[in-house]
Each structure stands twice: as structure tokens, then as C-alpha cells.
Predict the structure.
Amino acid sequence: MMTKRRTIFFISDRTAISAETLGQSLLTQFEHLQFYQVTLPFVDTLEKARFAVMQINNAEQQSGAKPIIFSTLINDDIRQMIMTGKGVVFDFFDTYMGRLEEELRTTSSHTVGRYHGMVNDTAYNFRIDAVNYAMYNDDGASTKEYDKADIILIGVSRAGKTPTCLYLGLQFGIYAANYPLTEEDLVNKDGYLPPVLAPFRRKLFGLTISPERLYNIRARRRPDSRYSSFEQCRQEVALAETLFQYEDIPFINITTMSVEEIAATVLHECNLRRRVV
């Protein structure tokens, strides 16, 4: 018997990022099942809640299975409205807030969007400055400010350096630069670092990737080119890993990792001090 594809709703009175993050973390434990995911942010009025209930009920009617709802709604009236729908509701605030209030011996403010409002001007400026730094020092375009870097990611082209640097900047306020190891950097260099990187050895961290995964990524970018050929990918990855080992540069294999996982690993492995909490 074929299992029905369940509809998943992520519902919030703000961006729904927290509901998505928490809900998807749970859903990854059921990799054998298929889900159709719907995100409903800014459900902050009863009218919007009624419309959400209508969508939930329609999904139940069409699939024949109750939708699963991950909610981070604060307003009690709106939460109760969502509860009237034909879905199974997992309310993160309802699950934890009562116990937290009991432990802290006080009541919460139940203020909508409180987490996002907590970001002060200093944290905001850290994020903007760090993202600007990542963009200016992306892909080896400029190396003049490497002395300001908290971390310099190195690896072959399309190994995930740029999105990781941007995430480190936006999420943690980390000044992250990246430098692509080209074929010229890797071939006939006897394992030595490119001269521009040598003075910053202690800031270097390597990203590597399986040749198969690299081939798939490059083939979408430049199909039928030498750059994207499997042999080229295999050779570059092998030479880059040899360089990392020869120069004693820490590195990780990012083949099966998300950007969030890569950034968190770099943050931990390099003991970087986050400027944004």
C-alpha cells in the first residue's frame, strides 16, 4: 500500500523561519516519506488565520490525510483558530512556554516578533559589515584585506566557499574571505601554498568535496567543458587535498553538508568568536 504524501504547513505570525527550521529538523528523520511543504508567514490576524484553516482543510480533503502543522504563533486567539482546522498541530510555543514560565517563576510577555526585535543596531552593523567584507573578498577578487579576516576559506572552484562566507557573515558577523585554488595554483607547485596565502597560514581552512559531486555542480554551470569534466574534477580535488595535508591546513569534506552545517563546523573547528548571538 502506497503511503499518502503528507502536506506540511509551517505557520508563524512573523517570518516562519523558526517554524521551518524546527519542523524540517524533525522531518529529516523520516527520509523514507514524501512531504509537500507550505509556508505561511505573517499570520497575525484572525482573518489570515481563517484563510490558513481553509488551506489546511482543502489539503486534507485533497490528500485524504491530515496535514501536519508546525506553528510558532504567539497570539492565543490565532493559535486556537488554527487548532480548529483538520490538521495535526505541533505548537512549539505551547510545548515549551508553559514549562519555561514555571521554571522561571514568571509569565512571558507573549509579544509577537520579539526575537527579531531583539537585534540592536550594533548587531545589525556587524552583519552588514561582515557581509560586505565577504562580498569584497570573494573568490580571490581582492586580497588586500586578508589581515582583517577571521577566516580564509580555500578550496577548488564550486566547493561551497562563497555561500559559506556569506552565511558566516550574515549569521555570526564573522569576517570570512575565500580564495579559489586554481589549476595553476595546484599543478607543479610541490604542495606549496600560493604566495598570497602564505602570510595568513593560521587563518586558512580548507573545503573539499567528492569529485562526483563537484562534477555534477560544474556540469550544470559549464556543460561539456574541460572545467566540468570528471577527470578535471578528480585531479583538482586530489591535488587540493594533498596541499591541505602537506601544509597541515585543517579541512572538511562538504559533499553531504548544508551551508548551515558547513558554517557551524567552521565556527567550531576554528574556535571563531561570533559577533552576533
The CA atoms of residues 29 and 77 lie 32 Å apart. The chain is about 45% helix and 15% strand. The first strand starts at residue 6 and ends at 11. The longest helix spans residues 46-63.
